[in-house]
Design brief:
The structure holds 4 protein chains of 4 kinds. By secondary structure, chain A is mainly β. Chain A is built from no helices and 7 strands. Chain A has a single domain, classed as Sandwich (Immunoglobulin-like). In chain A, β3 and β4 form a beta hairpin. The model of chain A has no long low-confidence stretch (mean pLDDT 96). Chain C is of the alpha+beta class. Classes of the chains: A mainly beta, B mainly alpha, C alpha+beta, D mainly alpha.
């Protein structure tokens, strides 16, 4: 199981700005280890987010997204106290979901 | 006379233009790098390691199944805030001057029953060594914004400063480099990498006041021990032991020189 | 080997269906394999089912002029026009050009920021795929320098 | 069960000194010795980087401090260095500037993560410290700019006699930088076998060949 994400969600007027940091190697499959063997691709392919349970975001990522990825997006119609949950799935099927409260 | 003047002033103007262009290109590069770094500050992956370190600090682990919440980092058992900006310092229980990472290993051994020597011998980024880095990130973050003020009251602390200074200037290896070859003067750069002058206070958030830091180039969290280790690798020196006297002495030398500088650790670096 | 080919073929069929909008949106949206495997700006967009893109000042791409290191390059894409279906980030000279695809809905602002890897100095694109099938883009060259002493 | 009580006594003395904080700091020469001992005890071999790299020659030792060595010592370092320079066989000073540019860009070689210590596998790391070809914006500033190095020194034809002193100085500086500055920060590429003669000739061409981009 990967380490938890860091999610910061700040209310701004009737919106919430969400900043997410995910702990993931994001291997491109192009790198070789010190013994010269290619390190297989291992990266987050799909990211979804929801506000109080209803989906607001779907994104698909390729191998170009940086290691320990950062993402920022803004949800409409959100206020302090609402629950934002973010989930990712990688190409090995590993999953992670974490939640934060809009401040 | 008029024509001569014209020609000469034309040439002079051209020269300034050229010089200006070169300086302009140079300024743009430095500005460009500063702009790039600014964009990364918000959302530093070091936060992930800080959270992991906080969990490890509180979690009961090791043969003695104990947490680190009673570990004395120099300001009393369990006191984390402010500890980072006063390290390395002398510890009576180990009768040694220790930096943050070697002190954490001492606590992991005394409180949790881990084998300190085994941790020190583990390569960076693996096993408990990875946890030491996360713990160091957590402890450093608790002092963000505070100013460095290493104690120099104990004779061992003063002695280590002098030893550290001599180690800093020690030239050797196939390239004849010392730390001072790169960090001995103001305004120097390796490629586009600014080099702080570590023989004096380099200023807020610079040099000693910026590590542990998250390195974007390899996506790794580095404590000061790994930072010094890789410096010596590029200095073409042999391998400095984790927590060895040389690394702690350099920490005292740089930490005391940084007196009054504001800590921005954990920072984000190339 | 055969099994992997079957998997790849199946994914391609799914991607094609998805691109043509026939893939049921509710189901787990299949990862756009073909688009993410594509080489070059035009091929990647075609694999996403987009028409030939036009440059438009209504799409904004934010990013540094110079990246001290290609491993982490902060980029953001936005489009204020109504009717944006997807916002897409591409790095022209990367081995696989397509970097990220963000679906836009009325629950979310059409602006996203993330960080991408760049193999070398290259043009970076932000593309808005509109509901009516149009593809509008903004581009910017980001210089990647060799930091440190490379030792 | 014969145990020796002796060790307890000295420990007591040390702690006592610890508590009352002995005012007397060891002398400077004692501290020098303690620093060398600390260095000897702190490093170990790793890959091709062995601890013998810590053994200092006269120049390294004399330049290991914030203050430069005395003029006499400096002169001796420079004289020894100059005497040790091996000049290129049959006076062939220049190679291919294109190879020179590659060497100048390459920062690899001789670290414990490098497998071979042979000169041909080493880079020269020039851009780490110098500006050389203006097209490269990522250059260092520890050393002076080498842009237009040959042009500024009026080298139009490296073959003619007028250029000889410049060629010799540059070769000598690359072979052993201490021949002209006792505590130079520049590695001694020839003397320490970091680069072989062919590689040095390529760097010479990058700096002095009128056709090199550096001299446009």
């Amino acid at each position: 199981m990967a380490d938890p994400m860091r999610i910061r969600a700040q209310a701004q007027g009737d919106k919430a700005v969400v900043r997410v940091l995910m702990s993931h190697e994001m291997e491109t499959g192009q790198r070789k280890d010190s013994a010269g063997k290619t390190i297989p691709a291992w990266f987050i392919q799909e990211v979804t987010a929801s506000l109080n349970g209803s989906p607001v975001l779907t994104a698909q990522w390729g191998t170009a997204v940086s290691k320990n990825p950062f993402m920022q997006f803004t949800i409409r119609g959100a206020k302090a106290g609402d629950k934002v949950s973010v989930s990712w799935v990688d190409n090995r099927g590993d999953k992670r979901t974490d939640e934060a409260t809009v401040a | 006379m008029r024509r001569g003047l014209l020609v000469r002033s034309g040439a002079w103007a051209m020269a300034t233009l050229l010089a200006g262009a070169a300086a302009q290109a140079q300024k743009n590069t430095a500005d460009g790098i500063a702009e790039y770094r600014k964009m990364l500050e918000d959302g530093n992956p070091a936060d992930l390691f800080e959270a992991k370190g906080e969990a490890l600090w509180k979690q009961k682990r090791g043969p003695k199944n104990a947490s680190l919440e009673s570990c004395d980092l120099g300001k009393g058992p369990g006191v984390v805030k402010g500890a980072f900006v006063e390290l390395p310092r002398y510890f009576a229980d180990t009768a040694k001057v220790q930096d943050l990472e070697s002190r954490l290993v001492s606590c992991m051994q005394a409180l949790q029953g881990f084998d300190g020597a085994a941790i020190a011998g583990t390569p960076f980024g693996r096993g408990e060594q990875d946890n030491v880095t996360a713990l160091a990130t957590y402890v450093a973050a608790a002092s963000r914004g505070l100013r460095f003020s290493l104690p120099q009251g104990h004779p061992e602390e003063r002695r280590l400063y002098e030893v550290g200074k001599r180690v800093f200037y020690f030239r050797g290896g196939p390239y004849d480099f010392s730390c001072a070859s790169c960090h001995g003067e103001d305004g120097k750069r390796i490629r586009l990498q600014d080099l702080p002058n570590l023989t004096k206070n380099p200023g807020d958030g610079v040099g000693f006041a910026a590590w542990p830091a998250y390195r974007v180039s390899n996506g790794q969290m580095w404590g000061m021990q790994l930072r010094l280790n890789d410096c010596y690798r590029q200095q073409r020196f042999p391998y400095p032991g984790f927590g060895s006297e040389v690394t702690v002495a350099l920490g005292v030398y740089m930490g005391v020189n940084a007196k009054g500088a504001e800590s921005i650790a954990p920072a984000i670096k190339r | 080997m055969r099994r992997r080919m079957m998997l790849k073929r199946g994914a391609e069929v799914a991607a094609a269906l998805a691109a043509a909008g026939l893939w049921p949106a509710g189901a787990h949206a299949a990862w756009a394999q073909q688009a993410f495997d594509a080489k070059g700006f035009a091929e990647a967009l075609k694999a996403l089912g987009a028409r030939t893109p036009q440059e438009s000042k209504d799409v904004t791409l934010t990013g540094p002029d110079i990246a001290e290191n290609g491993a982490v390059v902060p980029v953001a894409c936005a489009c204020a026009l109504p009717g944006v279906k997807r916002l897409v980030l591409l790095v022209d000279k990367n081995p696989n050009t397509l970097a990220a695809v963000f679906d836009v809905s009325d629950a979310i602002e059409p602006q996203f920021a993330t960080r991408v890897k760049m193999a070398q100095t290259s043009n970076v694109y932000a593309v808005a795929l509109m509901d009516d099938g149009q593809a509008l883009f903004a581009q910017k060259e980001i210089k990647v320098t060799l930091g440190g002493c490379g030792g | 069960m014969h145990t020796i009580q002796l060790p307890a006594v000295p420990a007591l003395v040390v702690t006592a000194c610890g508590i009352i904080g002995c005012a007397s700091m060891p002398s400077s020469s004692e501290l020098d010795q303690q620093a060398r001992a600390a260095i000897k005890a702190s490093f170990r071999d790793q890959g091709i980087a062995k601890v013998d790299r810590l053994n200092q020659d006269l120049g390294q030792r004399a330049c290991s401090g914030p203050t430069p060595p005395s003029p006499e010592v400096a002169q001796r370092i420079e004289a020894d260095a100059l005497a040790g320079i091996r000049w290129p066989e049959s006076g062939r000073y220049l190679g291919d500037w294109r190879e020179g540019e590659k060497l100048a860009q390459n920062g690899r070689g001789l670290t414990w993560t490098d497998t071979s210590a042979a000169p041909r596998d080493n880079g020269a790391s020039c851009y780490n410290c110098h500006q050389i070809d203006k097209k490269e914006i990522s250059f260092g500033t520890i050393g002076p700019s080498l842009w237009n190095y040959g042009k500024l020194r009026g080298v139009r034809d490296p073959g003619d006699a007028a250029a000889a002193p410049i060629l010799q100085y540059t070769w000598g500086k690359l072979w052993n930088s201490k021949a002209y500055a006792a505590c130079s920060n520049m590695p001694r590429f020839g003397h320490m076998q970091l680069l072989d003669e062919d590689q040095l000739r390529h760097l010479m061409a990058l700096l002095l060949d009128p056709k090199s981009p550096v001299n446009q």
